[in-house]
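User: Hey, quick favor. My workstation is busy. Could you predict this chain's structure for me?
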Amino acid sequence: MKKSVLTRYRVMAYVTGVLLVLLTAGVIAKRLLGMEGAAGFTTAIGIAHGWLYVLYLIFAFDLGSKAKYPFGKLAWVLLAGTVPTAAFFVERKVTREVEPLVSGAAPEPAEA
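Assistant: No problem, here it is.
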């Protein structure tokens, strides 16, 4: 597996996670705190998160299929972008599991 597959997944996981946390804060400010200016913020962040989540899905699916994840694990990775802060924890776990598969990591030379 190429390192770029993991890198683009990691970038989109962080972007999606940050946008989802901002969206959650905006919805709380708008609905619970009644802040007038939060409506525009929430709309803009919601649209950005929606479009970028589609990219996250594509990159996460690509990574999961190349890492040969079973369906349940792949589903959890894909859904991590919908639960606030879950993307950060799932990204960390996926990175630890997939890094040994990255072709950039050269195998240790065999000793004779």
